[in-house]
Design goal:
3-stranded antiparallel beta sheet; 398 residues; 7-stranded antiparallel beta sheet; 15% strand; alpha+beta; Beta-lactamase; 37% helix
């Protein structure tokens, strides 16, 4: 790992590049040990609420909820805030967050939107629901959705062993698909990045295979390499690229227009740049660097997406649009706390967080009532964002 890090730093010889990036490069690749925070502040309260909500579930489930609600017409001017928006804005202003919140409310599952800060200080563009963010670990849910379909088609099961696909990996005869999904495979990898953007899915997979270590210790340990292997398995089973599978199972069914892989971003994308990047050179260097870094996150974080598009995916996953309702119990397993499909799940409550460079995101929701809150920012910290998403949810969903 030390050698790889030294190689990474040697690429920063250019003085201006070093000044810009060294302050930004924190790259906490989603989750890690902070996963234990799940539902810390509101755990007991939400479980009790969920038990009560089961009595109302049939009525709630039959409510007309759009699979992909259109948030583009929601007012962004604070002077026009509704009471719900005012509560959300107070929380993000208190934390001094530059970003966007999309959330349901206690009275409606039609989302409200609150934004604050600039996506580009050079052009004076404010962050809005169409601004692109690297969604990092949120993407793990996409990989889980695709695998759910392949399992339903009988191409594999949660108990299928890794040695069926990668027999060369140590202990692969003891590692199941479920182990990979839940980070209990014993596979570890660090925050190690390529010196240049990886140019193909083959190189993405090979990079992850190179940096990972299979330990044979089958306890929870966060590693994005698990999802890189799952992406590779998807390719083997379908004969199509991982990107093509995301297109088939997620992008096309929902008609997403603001979802891109790191190597399909348009020129001059409407990206949320941190506000301290106040020169064109700084922004260009930053864009090149974030693309390089996320290229390592095969199947787990190489997508750029607007908050609106991600919200659509989240709602469509919960309400049976992307996954049939008769399979949702397997995708969102009930009972005590579990991690699978890129999120922490407990009694119908879901929570996930993501981080990369200066980008942070978190979502919190209830799969029974279809109440959800997502938060994407260009500043803060992983723990701050985790707590903020819970606070935002409870501010207007109770």
């Amino acid at each position: 790992m030390a050698n790889r890090r030294n190689e990474y730093h040697r690429t920063k010889q250019n003085h201006s590049r070093r000044l810009i990036i060294s302050a930004l490069l924190i790259a906490i690749l989603g989750g890690g040990i902070l996963g234990s925070y799940l539902f810390h502040a509101y755990h007991e309260k939400d479980i009790k609420q969920n038990i009560v909500s089961k009595k109302q579930q049939s009525q709630t489930s039959d409510s007309p909820i759009e699979a992909a609600p259109n948030t583009s017409k929601i007012a962004q001017d604070p002077k026009n805030d509704t009471p719900a928006q005012h509560k959300l804005r107070a929380i993000i202003n208190k934390q001094k967050l530059n970003g966007i919140v999309i959330s349901t409310t206690v009275n409606s599952n039609q989302p409200v939107v609150v934004t604050d800060g600039f996506s580009n200080v050079l052009t004076g563009t404010v962050i809005n629901e169409h601004t692109l963010f690297p969604i990092s670990s949120f993407q793990k849910m996409f990989t889980g959705i695709i695998l759910d379909h392949l399992i339903a088609e009988g191409k594999l099961s949660l108990n299928t062993r890794l040695n069926k696909f990668y027999p060369e990996i140590r202990f692969s005869d003891r590692i199941s698909i479920q182990n990979l999904l839940s980070h209990t495979s014993g596979i570890k990898s660090g925050d190690i990045f390529p010196v240049a953007p990886l140019t193909s899915e083959k190189s993405q997979l090979e990079f992850n295979q190179h940096i990972m270590k299979s330990t044979g210790i089958f306890k929870w340990s966060y590693s994005s390499a698990n999802y890189a292997l799952l992406a590779g398995i998807i390719v083997k089973l379908t004969g199509k690229s991982y990107q093509a599978n995301v297109e088939q199972y997620i992008i096309q069914p929902l008609g997403l227009k603001e979802t891109y892989f790191y190597n399909t971003l348009p020129n001059n994308p409407d990206l949320a740049y941190p506000e301290n990047l106040n020169t064109l050179l700084a922004q260009k260097v930053y864009l090149a660097d974030i693309r390089r870094i996320v290229s390592a996150d095969y199947g787990s974080g190489d997508i750029f997406q607007s908050a609106s598009d991600f919200y659509k995916v989240l709602v469509a996953t919960e309400n049976g649009t992307l996954i049939p309702k008769n399979r949702l119990a397997n995708f969102f397993p009930g009972g005590s706390r579990a991690y699978t499909n890129g999120m922490y799940i407990q009694y119908g409550l879901i929570h996930a967080a993501a981080a990369n460079l200066n980008y942070y995101g978190s979502y919190y929701g209830n799969t029974k009532t279809l109440k959800n809150t997502i938060l994407l920012t260009t500043n803060g910290s992983l723990q701050t964002i985790r707590v903020a998403s819970v606070d935002l949810y409870h501010a207007i969903n109770h």
